[in-house]
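Exercise 7. Given the encoded structure of a 180-residue chain, write a plausible sequence.
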């Protein structure tokens, strides 16, 4: 049987799947437009909502009365109601998730900015030292390595590391006090 505008409701009531395919083809654009307009802020659930609308039509076609209005208006009303239900169900959790994601992103940005500022300050403090001495200071104070680890990494005796750090501290104090 060919499903058309004249018999699709009758066939839907008989649970003819071709009638369901017909309304999806003919009224799917309207349903999708209503869902997109009302559920713009919960995009992840739009497709699920559209499917639920057609399920509601499939199981609730007996409630449709052509004397009360056009089928197009009836399916649009079902769609709008379904959107409201999805908003009630999913919007509060999405808003909380969005807020949490935003706060985490802001925290991450602040941490990165502080790291950059700290790196600039450290580089400014260590600018007056030789390259090798700067590396020793960074390994010890920033990376948290022990003198033994630095000694092993750089292939320098422990005593030389202590001496370089002592001389470097004195030089930094002198340079730092000059700037004040």
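Solution.
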């Amino acid at each position: 049987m060919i499903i058309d505008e004249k018999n699709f409701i009758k066939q839907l009531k008989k649970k003819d799947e071709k009638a369901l395919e017909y309304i999806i083809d003919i009224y799917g654009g309207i349903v999708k437009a209503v869902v997109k307009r009302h559920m713009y802020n919960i995009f992840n659930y739009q497709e699920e909502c559209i499917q639920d609308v057609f399920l509601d039509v499939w199981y609730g076609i007996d409630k449709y009365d052509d004397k009360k209005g056009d089928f197009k208006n009836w399916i649009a009303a079902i769609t709008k109601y379904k959107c409201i239900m999805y908003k009630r169900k999913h919007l509060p959790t999405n808003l909380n998730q969005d807020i949490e994601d935003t706060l985490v992103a802001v925290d991450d940005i602040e941490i990165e900015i502080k790291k950059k500022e700290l790196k600039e300050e450290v580089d400014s403090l260590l600018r007056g030292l030789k390259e090798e001495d700067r590396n020793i200071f960074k390994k010890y104070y920033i990376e948290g390595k022990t003198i033994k680890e630095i000694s092993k990494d750089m292939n320098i005796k422990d005593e030389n590391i202590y001496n370089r750090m002592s001389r470097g501290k004195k030089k930094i104090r002198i340079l730092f006090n000059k700037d004040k």
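Remark. The mean pLDDT is 83. Students should compare their own answers with the one above.
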